[in-house]
Specification:
The complex is a heterodimer of chains A (about 130) and B (about 280). Chain A is mainly α. Helices cover about 55% and strands about 0% of the residues of chain A. In chain A, α1 runs parallel beside α6 and α7 packs across α8. The radius of gyration of chain A is 16 Å and the shape is globular. With about 280 residues, chain B is α/β, with parallel strands linked by helices. Classes of the chains: A mainly alpha (about 130), B alpha/beta (about 280). Bound molecules: fe (ii) ion.
Chain lengths: ~130, ~280
């Protein structure tokens, strides 16, 4: 029997479950090395050389080099790990959230100040159909 | 005997810590957030707990993907504030109460809650921001702290029901400890927020307020909220709120709500805060 996923119909969301965790394991284990200054310095000095020290897929390495935040999530990255790469680049959680949701920093900040992304219309994937 | 006198629910948004550490809490963006904590700081000064039992989650800081304990109890003498990528927060070292922590571990495990015991653990914003919120910026934290770290990062987090019942077991443990201690329990994280992908920035104030109401008046109902409801209604990271049930389970069913604060936004998150007291016996 397949594992039940009653959260699969939530739009614009990756739930970091065991399937995602397995997929993203080495990507996430790379990211967490950036938590400490020694890791950040070594990575900054030679990004692709540093990445070669981890058994990540070529697509995962490319997503890191491209700073393609959503692609990292698709490939099993979790935001608390990828945010360590963000921190290494001096990018805050809020700035990452703007990029991942396809807004400018100004638009995103204004949306949050106006009360955030509303729940209406954002509960089910079916509500997003037809949205570009 | 040791006793639990009150519970505190509070968000642990990292940006709240940054605002304090960089001295910008008076800015218009932050002022309403911190105004709501004024009363809390007076309250904790008056209540002056000897020990804070602090339920929080690690954000892939002390625990990597290598090891994901569902419940990990901090039994060390002290806990260093961790570097989460921006350098460690400039806050005091967190001191534990080793004897009480070991007593709780023994009692709760024999009560059939299989905790992981941590004799070394760095603590991230999940633990230090609630202390900053409640105690401001002291030289030393005025209380000892027993951290309980809960996995809410890799799905599934423990159920609300499990957390609620663990709270009850923690209370039994604390109340069987033979030292006169005033213990306050914190449940941290939330409220509605989503940090990732295209739905990032989701906030659901109506749901949050109902959750706060239930914390006060119907904790059993609150503890039955299924995970998919948190994920859908409160955002993928809103599931942190399961940790509040540990706090609530450790209190009487009938409590007095002495303070509440709710504000949107702090960075990507709705800030929620509640103080609940057991009625004096
Ligand atoms: Fe958190």
């Amino acid at each position: 029997m397949a594992t039940k996923k009653d959260y699969d119909d939530i739009p614009g969301t990756y739930v970091f479950d065991a399937d995602m965790s397995r997929k993203g394991y080495h990507l996430n284990m790379f990211c967490i090395t950036l938590r400490l200054a020694t890791g950040r310095e070594a990575f900054k000095a030679d990004e692709s050389g540093y990445l070669d020290g981890f058994p990540m897929t070529p697509a995962q390495k490319q997503a890191v080099l491209d700073r393609d935040w959503n692609e990292m999530l698709r490939l099993g990255g979790n935001i608390y790990y990828t945010s360590k790469l963000g921190a290494c680049d001096g990018i805050t959680f809020q700035a990452l959230a703007a990029m991942m949701s396809g807004s400018t920093q100004e638009e995103y900040r204004a949306m949050m100040l106006a009360g955030g992304r509303p729940i209406e219309g954002n509960r089910y994937k079916s509500e997003w159909e037809g949205k570009e | 005997m040791a006793r639990i006198t009150a519970g505190v629910g509070v968000s642990h948004v990292p940006a709240i810590g940054v605002a304090m550490d960089t001295g910008i809490t008076d800015q218009p963006y932050w002022k309403p957030v911190f105004d709501g904590f004024k009363k809390s700081r007076e309250w904790i000064k008056e209540n002056n707990p000897d020990v804070v039992f602090l339920v929080y989650n690690d954000h892939c800081t002390a625990f990597s993907a290598e090891m994901i304990p569902t419940f990990a109890l901090g039994c060390a003498a002290e806990f260093q504030p961790a570097d989460e990528g921006w350098g460690p927060r400039p806050v005091p070292v967190v001191k534990g109460h080793q004897k009480l922590a070991s007593h709780i571990a023994q009692s709760v495990i024999l009560d059939e809650f299989d905790l992981t015991i941590m004799n070394k653990m760095e603590v991230d914003h999940g633990l230090t921001v609630p202390l900053s919120v409640m105690y401001d910026q002291p030289e030393e934290w005025p209380c000892l702290v027993i951290p309980l770290c809960v996995n809410v990062v890799q799905y599934p987090a423990p159920t609300g029901n499990r957390c609620y019942n663990l709270g009850k077991a923690i209370r039994r443990a604390i109340e069987s400890y033979d030292e006169d201690l005033n213990v306050v329990i914190f449940g941290t994280g939330g409220m509605s927020h989503q940090l990732q992908f295209e739905r990032a920035g989701l906030i659901n104030p109506k749901w949050d307020k109902e959750f706060l109401d239930m914390m006060t008046s119907d904790p059993v109902k609150a503890s039955q909220i299924p995970h998919v409801e948190y994920l859908r209604e409160a955002g993928s990271e809103g599931i942190e709120l399961v940790m509040w049930h540990v706090m609530r389970g450790a209190l009487d069913e009938d409590v007095v709500e002495v303070h509440r604060h709710y504000h949107v936004p702090a960075s990507n998150t709705a800030v929620g805060h509640i103080i609940l007291e057991n009625r004096p016996k």
